[in-house]
Amino acid sequence: MSENKISWSEGTTIYKCNDESDFAYFLLEGEILIKSSGGKSVGFVNENEIFGEQSIILGIRRTVTTIASKNSKAIKIPKKQLIKEYQNSSLLIKAILRSTYLRLTNLDSTIKVDLTSLDSF
Questions:
Q1: How many domains does the chain divide into?
Q2: Domain containing residue 17
């Protein structure tokens, strides 16, 4: 897998919201900032974590923007390989992953709706 190693300098955009979902990444070193579709910082990816897999598994375009917040190194995981691993998972693991990803995807819009509804009080 060494041929799939990639590195980014601090401040480099890895992918943007609405980009095609073609790779996932396993972070070896550094830190990745996650920004919502509205541009708000919503979290970080730390070393030994995977990111970019959610949109591949759900079959959708990217739902967030990711930026290297430090100089970072990762292993690039092709879409085809990730899908194969997912398909080889048990039905229970697939169900857990899918429901978790759907909840995360809907979280941003749920928060906006809930906060907007409070304005009527």
A1: 1
A2: 2-113
